Amino acid sequence: MLETSARLLRLLSLFQARRDWTGSQLAERLGVTGRTIRNDIERLRELGYPVDARPGVAGGYRLGTHGALPPLLLDEDEAVAVAVGLRTAASGSIAGIEETSVRALAKLQQVLPSRLRRRVGAFGSYALPVPARGPRVDPDVLTLIASACRDHERLRFDYRTHEGAASERSVEPYRLVNDRQRWYLVAWDLDRDDWRTFRVDRMAPRTPAGPRFPPRALPPDREIAARVARGVGEATWRYRARVIVHASAAYVRDRLPIPVDVQALGPDRCAFEPGSDHPEMLALYLGLLDADFTIVDSPELAEALRKLAGRYQRALGESAG
Fold it and tell me: How confident is the model at residue 2 (pLDDT cuts 50, 70, 90)?
């Protein structure tokens, strides 16, 4: 009995990791026969899990949607509480778990009965949150995108750029990334034939989702997140400057809050191009490096440093008096 129970849990985990499986694929993953898989599928159905079967050569199994809530895991009130908590966490109220919350919410909503979905939706409609610093994103949109990433389904959406230009996009979605209370989608743009990053709060998805696509090779998730953080910062900076820092490149990289390309010029000398929306803020960040530096070309930054130096000098003079 223990072996069967453990196998059923493993089978459920496979269904939640990927939407469609053939019987032979499941049998190979679990190390059992096709007959055992068919018996296990029947056991899951008896427990309330809506597993759909598709006949034919290209057929297989998939975990259906909006079935009865499976017993022995969560009762209805618990399921609603978990869904509401995940929606709240996905909005960025708890730093560090936003992406995990979206993935978990997509799995839970896949089998949540419609009456419970209405209860969760009512909470989102009538609960008044404290305004956040970042733009708000509908959790339903996040779970729709997360499901499309998981199931390798194309997305069509209307998109508004930073400058306000509107366009219709068709993409192959791959990863959702949360960076400083903003959500971004990393996807293959079918019209541009290249990788692109989209702000989710500027997306208006069109339903239903498009056809499925064979997944492309991806770099590691950590590299994707670093690339998004770097690209997002560079795309939104209004001021840029080239700075020579009298310290090692490794030292400067460790002191920076986001990934930035730093060029080593020697053991104790390096160069990089920081940016910010305001030269005064950039001047403050450079001061936090705790190292001497030289500005190569940025009159706005030089003026901000002069103002800041004068302000600090006046503060020291008044304190001494």
Answer: very low
pTM: 0.50
Distance in angstroms (rounded) separating the CA atoms of residues 149 and 142: 11
Query: First CA to last CA across the chain, in angstroms?
Result: 83
Please classify residue 260 by burial: count the beta carbons closer than 10 Å to its beta carbon, then call 0-12 exposed, 13-18 middle and 19+ buried.
middle
CB 289 within 8 A of CB 255: yes
Q: What's the confidence (pLDDT) of residue 132?
A: 52
CB 300 within 8 A of CB 239: yes
Question: Tell me: the pLDDT tens digits for 249-289?
Answer: 999 988 886 667 789 999 999 998 887 778 888 888 888 89
Q: Compute the Cα dihedral for 85, 89, 95, 99 and give only its sign.
A: positive
More confidently predicted of 211 and 95 = 211
Tell me 212's DSSP state.
B
Burial of 252 (0-12, 13-18, 19+ CB in 10 A): buried
- Asked if 225 and 182 count as a contact pair (C-beta separation under 8 A), the reply is no
The stretches of the chain forming alpha helices (DSSP H) are 2-17, 23-30, 34-46, 76-88, 98-110, 114-126, 139-151, 221-236, 249-255, 279-287, 299-320
Q: Which residue, 96, 169, 111, 167, is CA-closest to 143?
A: 111
**124-168 pLDDT tens trace:** 555 545 455 556 677 778 878 888 988 899 999 999 887 678 899
